[in-house]
Design brief:
By secondary structure, the chain is of the alpha+beta class. Helices cover 21% and strands 20% of the residues. The protein is built from three helices and five strands; from the N terminus they run E-E-H-H-H-E-E-E. It has a five-stranded antiparallel sheet with strand order 1-2-4-3-5, with no helix packed on it. The longest helix has 9 residues.
């Protein structure tokens, strides 16, 4: 353990504040899963994580798997900037978790 808190930002906006080792925001999870792993010496490793950001609504909505699965959620993500909600020990800026948790921060 070398830090007490991890902050994840996209386009200058805080997306997740993690106090533990668990992460919830789709953008944070995309970053974690995009770690380049070198297989062998001289071997090329493809990286396919194309992230598109938006200036309206959630910055990550164009690349978010969660919003692609739910039409109502997608519309909310496109139109409105998400509120910060508590998920376990974390503060997450994501509309997906609002329906599960009403603990909103301003």
């Amino acid at each position: 353990d070398f830090c007490d808190k991890i902050l994840v930002a996209a386009r200058g906006k805080l997306m997740e504040e993690a106090l533990g080792k668990e992460f919830y925001h789709p953008y944070t999870l995309t970053l974690i899963n995009s770690v380049l792993r070198i297989r062998g010496r001289g071997e090329r490793t493809p990286v396919n994580n194309q992230i598109t950001f938006s200036d309206v609504g959630c910055p990550f909505h164009d690349s978010c798997e969660l919003s692609r699965k739910d039409r109502k959620l997608r519309i909310k993500c496109i139109l409105d900037e998400p509120k910060v909600v508590r998920v376990a020990e974390n503060r997450v800026k994501c509309w997906y978790f609002l329906s599960e948790n009403d603990n909103i921060f301003d």
